[in-house]
Design brief:
Low-confidence stretches: none
Strand content: 35-45%
Mean pLDDT: 92
Distance between the termini: 79 Å
Largest sheet: 6 strands, mixed
Bound molecules: copper (II) ion
């Protein structure tokens, strides 16, 4: 003789178990679609640099002579941007121009204190930390002007710390 055993689960508990399981599946799907289908990614630290020399070392990509765009292949760019309080609350460079459809990887660092870098109407939004390089890639599909701003309060000139990416048709 076999006895059929079953665990008693309260109907409310059963409902909540099902709800939590369904939520897990929804979250997993949402994260997968965002990451793999829509290409949304989190900014990541790319490498470490010395904030004291990052803007003065002639070999540094953030030296005034070296900052800005590099074309890797047609439509693919790296953009090296320095955020600076000591040089008057500005980004170097504070204007870059790329054709529509370009994929741009931003490498942003600071030579003094914590700044921010937010490019409007894109998912580029990252902290800029002295000693660290923040990296994020975006594809700029439509032509227009995309302003970028510092969104981490960095002193009295914080409000004038901005620039723009011009996307030409
Ligand atoms: Cu700022």
């Amino acid at each position: 003789m076999t006895t059929k055993t079953s665990m008693h689960i309260d109907p409310y508990e059963r409902t909540w178990m099902i709800v939590s399981f369904v939520m897990l599946i929804i979250f997993f799907t949402a994260v997968s679609v965002a990451g793999f289908a829509m290409g949304i990614q989190l900014p990541g630290p790319d490498r470490r640099v010395d904030p004291k020399t990052v803007a003065s070392d002639p070999d540094s990509p953030w030296h005034p002579d070296n900052v800005g765009l590099r074309e890797l292949s047609p439509g693919k760019y790296d953009a090296y941007i320095l955020a600076s309080q000591t040089q008057g609350w500005r980004f170097f460079p504070n204007e870059i121009t790329v054709p529509a459809g370009s994929t741009v990887t931003f490498y942003v660092t600071s030579q003094d204190l914590i700044h921010g870098f937010k490019l409007e109407n894109t998912n580029v939004n990252m902290m800029v930390i002295p000693g660290q390089v923040s990296k994020l890639t975006v594809t700029l599909k439509s032509a227009g002007e995309y302003n970028f701003i510092c969104h981490e309060y960095c002193g009295t000139g914080h409000a004038i710390m901005f620039g723009k990416v011009i996307v030409t048709p």
